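JOB MANIFEST
job_type = single_chain_structure
chain_count = 1
residues = 265
[input]
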Amino acid sequence: MSLFYFNNKQESNTFWEHLEELRWLILRMLVVLGLLFSVVFSFRDFIFNKIIFPPLSSNFVVYRSLCKLADWLHNPDFCPGDFRINLINLELTGQFMAHISTAATIAAVIAVPYLLYELWRFVAPALYPHERKNVGWVFVTSSFLFYLGAVVSYYLIFPLTIRFLGTYQVSGLVPNQISLDSYLSTLFILVFAMGLMFEMPVLAYFLSRLGILNARMLKSVRSYALIILLILSAIITPTTDPFTMLAVALPLYLLYELSIVVCKK
C-alpha cells in the first residue's frame, strides 16, 4: 500500500515538474519574441525602406542583376526595364497594423533557431543519446533550410512575381492600385511557402526513419517528381519567361536529390 502510494506520488511530482518546465519554456519564448518584436518595431524605417519596399522599383539589386545578365547574353528580354509600383492604404489603421504585423512576423522568423533550441532542450531528456544527436542535427538543418528558402524567395521569386503582377494590365484603362495589405501578405506567404518547401530533405529524413519512404521509392518516381516540381514552379512564379520558372525549379530539384541522399543514411 505504502509502495503504491509512493510510486503514484513520484509520478505525480514528475508530471507537475514537467508542467512547470513547460510553463517556463513558454514564458521564455514569449519574452524573447516580445524583446525581438520591440527591437524590430523600433527600426521601422530600416525594415520598410531597406527590406520590405525595395522590390517595388527597378533599382532593386535583383532587377539590376537581371539587366546585367541581359547585356551579357545579348537578350534584352531578361531585363525588367524601368518601373515603380506604388502602394495605397485603404484603412485608417492600415499602416499602423501593417507595422505591427510586419514586426511580429520578422521577430518570429528571427527567433526560429532559438524556439527550436528550446523545444529540443525540453524533449532531449526523454531521448536516448543517439536520438538526441539526431534531433539536434534535424533542428539545425531545418532552421538553415528554412532561412535558405526564405532568402531564395525574397531575392528571386517575390521580386519577379511582384514585378509581373504589379505591372500587368488587361487594359490601359484599368490602372493598378495595390494595397499595402495585399503586398505584405503576398510577400510573407511566398517567403513562408518557399521556406517550407526547402524542408523537403528534413521531411524525407523523418519519413525514411518511420519506414514510409526510402531512396529506391524516390528514385523510381524521379521523372514524375520533376514534372510536379516544374508545375509548382510555374504556379509560384506566374511569369511568362522560362528562365524564371527554371530558376525556381532547379533548387527544388536539387533538394529532391538531397532527399534521396538523406534517405540512404
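[summary]
Strands lie at 87-88, 178-179.
Residues 134 and 239 are 40 Å apart (CA to CA).
exit_status = 0
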